[in-house]
Amino acid sequence: MNMNVKNKEPRSKKEILTATLEMLESNSYSSLTIEAIAAQAGVGKTTIYRWWENKARLVLDAFLMTVESEFEFDSNKSIQDNFKQQLEALARILNSKIGKSTLTIVTESEEIAKDFYVLFLMTKRNEAKQLLQAAIDKGELKPTINLDITLDLLYGPIYFQILIYKQIPDADYINDLLIHVLEGITIAN
Description:
The chain is an all-alpha fold. It has nine helices and no strands.
């Protein structure tokens, strides 16, 4: 019997996270309720509160589940193709309902912002640093570049476009961004 409970928990967690994503497709974050998510997932409210202390934590975990496989680098692709894929995925996700909800909770809660930073931004940033360092090691990028500034130059405009201008950067914007940034850090052949 205990074995069934252990097997059911991950499935229930995934069902709750999926229900959260589904509910956000037709509701704003502010109108999202634990009761509605519980009903959608077919679980009780207490089940949700056993794993998440509030809806902000639940939304952050739903976001993390959504982006889990979205930001993987491919060592067989060029640096430009890798970052193009990354920036397009970031723009698409941040412009989605779960992305917008996550940006809302990050701006409203310092604690959630710290978790977003540790669980998403730093993880992905470290992977991007490794990609840049590999390109430096291969002699493709200047060895004097500051990795953190380079990543800010690449990712910052995407956040700026979405948060300030309230628009999703299109493929042309992302291509121009990559050309301008990479032009300054690439070793000419």
